[in-house]
């Protein structure tokens, strides 16, 4: 078809000849007792941050709520008019969607709301500086945070996220491996290879040079990679839906308190959200561990 990228279409067709064996799961996840997280009357607070065009806030709030957080809806307008302050929260989840319709590039308009307003910029800088806070950026939130990396300590080598190599919006379950990074949200998940929901049009990493990639590798800041059915990082479409180098799709800041990723863990934290799952999984999928880790981190601060 004239609308398709020929190389991507050929790559997808070739999987048939190569005998691709499909999705799989290798993890040591155990269903948490979420009832124990909600016994305490005093709970850590997480800001479910959104902007015009964002659509992933409900699933994100649900996951954090089950993990024992007080999840509060925070629109950027709340910060602009002073009715809320991001520094009144233990954590921040920057949600996915299409802020400002991506007309300034994915996450571009959202990031400029922060960078070009000194009051808001100062709030975010203060939040990122505090050792007691965590941040999760997913999809559009990942793109937005990459655009404000100048005010995030230890994010100097982060890439930009540009249009998928296929030239199309890609929505599918993909296979990823969680790497040995310093992310507080991915603690204890090193080496897990599990499916996850992916849905974006601009998820391909763009680094200035290879030194940036090597810097992230050497400092354990690569958090997640797309992999093939043999468990190896891949750039092959559609196993890698956007064409990112080395399959890189999740990154953390140097201290591990800010983690960004293009896939959507909040869309698949319950097994009922999957179109396929292994029989060993019960009520929750391994992605629930991210939200449990956030709770453990907040309780320890």
UniProtKB/TrEMBL annotation:
InterPro entries: Class_I_gatase-like. It comes from SAR86 cluster bacterium. Pathway: Purine metabolism; IMP biosynthesis via de novo pathway; 5-amino-1-(5-phospho-D-ribosyl)imidazole from N(2)-formyl-N(1)-(5-phospho-D-ribosyl)glycinamide: step 1/2. The keyword Protein transport does not apply. GO terms for cellular component: cytoplasm. This is phosphoribosylformylglycinamidine synthase. Gene3D superfamilies: 3.40.50.880. GO terms for molecular function: ATP binding; metal ion binding; phosphoribosylformylglycinamidine synthase activity. The lineage of its organism: Bacteria, Pseudomonadati, Pseudomonadota, Gammaproteobacteria, SAR86 cluster. Its EC number is 6.3.5.3. PROSITE patterns: GATASE_TYPE_1. Keywords: ATP-binding, Glutamine amidotransferase, Ligase, Magnesium, Metal-binding, Nucleotide-binding, Purine biosynthesis. In the N-terminal section; belongs to the FGAMS family.
């Amino acid at each position: 078809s004239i609308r398709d990228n020929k190389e991507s279409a050929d790559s997808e067709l070739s999987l048939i000849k190569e005998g691709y064996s499909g999705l799989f799961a290798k993890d040591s996840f155990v269903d948490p007792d979420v009832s124990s997280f909600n016994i305490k009357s005093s709970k850590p607070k997480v800001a479910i941050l959104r902007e015009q065009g964002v659509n992933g806030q409900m699933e994100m709030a649900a996951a954090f709520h089950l993990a024992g957080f007080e999840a509060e809806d925070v629109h950027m307008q709340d910060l602009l008019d002073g009715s809320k302050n991001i520094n009144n929260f233990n954590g921040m989840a920057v949600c996915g969607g299409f802020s400002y319709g991506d007309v300034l590039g994915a996450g571009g308009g959202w990031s400029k709301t922060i960078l070009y307003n000194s009051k808001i910029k100062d709030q975010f800088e203060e939040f990122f500086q505090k050792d007691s806070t965590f941040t999760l950026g997913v999809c559009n939130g990942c793109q937005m945070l990459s655009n404000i990396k100048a005010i995030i300590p230890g994010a100097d080598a982060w890439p930009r996220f540009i249009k998928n190599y296929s030239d199309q919006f890609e929505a599918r379950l993909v296979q990823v491996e969680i790497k040995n990074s310093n992310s507080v949200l991915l603690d204890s998940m090193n080496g897990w290879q599990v499916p996850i929901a992916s849905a974006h049009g601009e998820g391909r990493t763009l680094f200035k040079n290879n030194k940036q990639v090597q810097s992230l590798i050497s400092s354990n800041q690569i958090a997640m990679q797309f992999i093939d059915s043999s468990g190896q990082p891949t750039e092959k479409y559609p196993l890698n839906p956007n064409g990112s180098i080395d399959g890189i799709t999740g990154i953390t800041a140097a201290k591990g308190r800010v983690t960004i990723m293009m896939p959507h863990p909040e869309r698949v934290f319950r097994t009922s959200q999957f179109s396929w799952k292994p029989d060993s999984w019960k009520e929750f999928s391994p992605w629930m561990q991210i939200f449990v880790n956030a709770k453990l981190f907040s309780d320890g601060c």
